[in-house]
Write a structure and sequence with these properties.
alpha+beta, 15 helices, 476 residues, disordered N terminus, six-stranded antiparallel β-sheet, 24% strand
């Protein structure tokens, strides 16, 4: 029983930092993420071929239709939806187009998932340079939200892109890169599908590696110095995540970290390189369910996770497997409730003071059901127009259980806007793919180039062919 419990907690911990559950495409109504955005759409059209995608765009031009673009539909703020519009489903457009083992590059259609890439390159001893911590997302979707993951050494996701091809609003196919049409490239990455359809992407790859897992418990006020000295300051450490307690005992004070460090000698890599699959779902699903109920459940869950991190200390894992966190256990079905994510970025040196202020705020919100806070590191990267990491930042991913009715939405929105204000007061920002609780003013404060972004949208797509509810909510 202990083995299954630990395995279940293992799945739960590594998965909590990303998406909540799978959303399928339905016609003619889309509910957005978790039933919060019911939207009537005109049609769902599958992007099955390059010419088929161009035809959808050209037909939309003739008929005056609006197009929103969808991959796995994990974005929660209407980025893949538009009322009475065409929803372009990119999942069928998922082939591997080219792979160069020696040059360490791969070209894939934008509907391919990170798992598709891993399955192709793992037998060659290669790995993704940068990806999300879960591999269920499409690469086009990840680039459109400018995602990030566990790697602390290879910069942002756009830094791993050699080039991409885009179908623009005129139906033309154009190539973009950091040097080829860089202005549009920097708008498309993190552009939420508003500038065209990403057709295919060429990525840089790196060698797969064998890592040793190390874990540590500490107080949140010591996290910055611990990270700077023992994690970032150790060149062997390649990946990192942390979690802060939401248990009443040690609330927003007690933390643990999980680090992945290069082992001396890689001869054991082959025996650890087989790609792991998600198998155990019931145990972590139960543990997460208990934590939803009350403070006692949250305390039990935190205690179990502390037991878990002691059990994995010193274990070995391949880079590819470290980039395959699990997610199915997070599926959640409740007639009256739903779950959302929030993500806040705060400068590394501000972390301790920020957590203290965030704690004070949350201690006053008895009805705010916070389930998890996972912390990762993202290095300074202001290349994209809507960059969230204008300096080295810690990202805090919050999982929240809330009522799905109008009153619940309003109450959660009030708390979220307060948390964003605290984040902004500490020089931080918030992540854009989630439900539209933030105000337009908060977006402008978080993203100083907001006006530039929407001006570029008007210039490159003057007929507003590519639209979504995020644009309607926040356009300037």
């Amino acid at each position: 029983m202990k083995t299954y419990l630990i395995a279940g907690i293992y799945l739960c911990v590594l998965g909590l930092s990303a998406s909540l559950y799978f959303s399928g495409l339905q016609e003619p109504e889309e509910s957005g993420h978790n039933r919060l955005l019911p939207v009537e759409i005109k049609a769902v059209k599958a992007g099955a071929s390059e010419e088929g995608i161009r035809k959808i765009v050209l037909d939309a031009n003739k008929k005056g239709d609006k197009i929103s673009i969808a991959g796995m539909q994990h974005s929660q703020g209407g980025q893949t939806l538009y009322p009475n519009g065409i929803l372009l489903d990119m999942k069928p457009y998922n082939r591997i187009l080219d792979f160069d083992e020696k040059a360490k590059t791969i070209t894939v259609q934008s509907g391919a998932t990170w798992n598709d890439i891993q399955q192709h390159i793992n037998p060659y001893g290669l790995s993704l340079k940068v990806s999300q911590s879960q591999n269920i997302f499409t690469v086009g979707g990840s680039l459109s939200v400018q995602a990030h993951g566990l790697d602390i050494r290879n910069g942002g996701m756009m830094d791993s892109v050699v080039s991409l091809r885009l179908v623009n609003a005129n139906g033309d196919i154009i190539e973009l890169s950091a040097s080829e049409k860089p202005e549009l490239f920097q708008a498309v990455i993190g552009g939420y599908g508003l500038f065209g359809v990403i057709l295919d992407v060429t990525f840089e790859l790196v060698d797969d590696e064998l890592y040793e897992v190390s874990t540590k418990l500490f107080d949140s006020k010591d996290y910055t110095s611990y990270f700077q000295q023992q994690v970032l300051g150790n060149p062997k450490t390649k990946m990192h995540l942390a979690r802060i307690s939401i248990s009443p005992e040690g609330f927003m004070e007690e933390m643990y970290a999980i680090n992945y460090s290069l082992v001396d000698g890689q001869e054991q890599l082959p025996e650890h390189s087989a790609l792991k699959e998600e198998k155990l779902i019931a145990a972590p699903k139960l543990l997460l369910g208990i934590s939803r109920l009350n403070d006692e459940g949250k305390g039990l869950f935190w205690h179990s996770q502390k037991t878990y991190i002691r059990s994995i200390d010193g274990k070995l894992i391949s880079r590819n497997n470290a980039m395959r966190s699990d997610s199915e256990f997070m599926e959640y079905s409740n007639a009256a409730k739903t779950e959302i994510l929030q993500e806040y970025f705060v400068p590394v040196d501000e972390f301790a003071d920020y957590i203290e202020d965030l704690k004070k705020l949350l201690e006053q919100e008895d009805n705010f059901n916070l389930l998890n806070v996972t912390i990762r590191y993202t290095s300074q990267n202001d290349k994209a127009v809507l960059s969230y990491a204008r300096e080295d930042m810690f990202s805090l991913v919050l999982l929240v259980n809330q009522e799905a009715d109008a009153e619940g939405i309003a109450e959660t929105g009030r708390v979220v806007r307060s948390m964003i204000d605290v984040t902004l007061d500490h020089g931080g920002t918030y992540y854009l793919p989630y439900y539209g609780y933030p105000t337009q003013e908060q977006m402008v404060r978080s993203y100083p180039r907001t006006k530039e972004f929407f001006d570029l949208k008007d210039r490159y797509d003057p007929e507003q062919r590519f639209l979504n509810m995020f644009y309607e909510e926040y356009r300037q």
